[in-house]
Backbone:
């Protein structure tokens, strides 16, 4: 792990009085990383290297790709078919992993930490702060940054792919924010959705992805999440031109890649 070391000059009233203070380690708040739906912890290896290279120690919530199959247990419930799923019913295993990771961070980081949620990890982070983390520990969370997160539930006339999860989150987090936490939402503007044969294949995929999320396929986004769904009211908003959604399919041009990360990393504490 690399840490930047700076020397601060102290100036006297005359030039010959200039001296250099002892080199001091500039430590920054660590980050707890919440993987997105379908992702595994190893997808963020390079992301962690980039963050640690800039002075942020990292704790990635341990998730295997196969873990996401556990969410399909909701298929056997009435709430799934009526679009009224609640997160604890299908994502309890995820929250347990988040809790264990945060407890590990708490043991080592007495001054607090940031949370970075990628994709669904962003709204999972929101509901975790709202319902899961003890109130007395809220002050430990400095910043929640969401990367390509579809925060808003789809229009009522669209099929809700989350089967009510996002509606639940937004109802429970009606005020959107914990006062103690700084919220930053980052969205990408890289692909405009286009119908079949009207554009490139990836633009058609974007069209298919955006439609169920916000009700409009022919809009801009990161290839998966449309821009209009990526932001919360009153949160800091950042739009990154050219940012794609996933570290798996676009390792050199997603939110956490070298170059693009500098568009938002300064909001970490």
Residues:
């Amino acid at each position: 792990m690399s840490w930047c070391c700076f020397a601060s000059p102290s100036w006297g009233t005359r030039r010959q009085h200039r001296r250099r203070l002892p080199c001091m380690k500039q430590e920054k708040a660590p980050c707890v990383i919440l993987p997105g739906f379908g992702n595994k912890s190893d997808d963020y290896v390079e992301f962690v290297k980039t963050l640690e290279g800039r002075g942020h120690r990292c704790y990635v919530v341990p998730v295997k790709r196969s873990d996401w199959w556990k969410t399909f247990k909701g298929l056997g419930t009435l709430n799934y078919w009526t679009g009224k799923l609640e997160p604890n019913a299908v994502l309890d295993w995820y929250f347990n992993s988040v809790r264990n990771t945060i407890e590990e961070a708490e043991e080592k980081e007495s001054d607090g930490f940031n949370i970075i949620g990628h994709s669904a990890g962003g709204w999972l982070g929101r509901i975790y702060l709202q319902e899961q983390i003890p109130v007395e520990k809220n002050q430990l969370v400095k910043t929640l940054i969401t990367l390509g997160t579809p925060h808003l539930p789809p229009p009522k006339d669209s099929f809700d792919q989350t089967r009510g999860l996002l509606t639940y989150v937004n109802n429970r987090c009606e005020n959107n924010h914990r006062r103690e936490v700084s919220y930053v939402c980052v969205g990408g503007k890289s692909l405009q959705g286009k119908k079949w044969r009207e554009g490139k294949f990836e633009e058609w995929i974007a069209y298919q992805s955006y439609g169920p999320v916000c009700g409009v396929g022919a809009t801009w986004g990161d290839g998966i999440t449309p821009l209009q769904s990526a932001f919360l009211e009153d949160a800091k908003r950042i739009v990154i031109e050219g940012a794609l959604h996933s570290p798996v399919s676009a390792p050199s041009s997603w939110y956490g890649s070298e170059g693009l990360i500098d568009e938002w990393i300064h909001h970490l504490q």
Q: What stands out?
A: The chain has six helices and twelve strands.
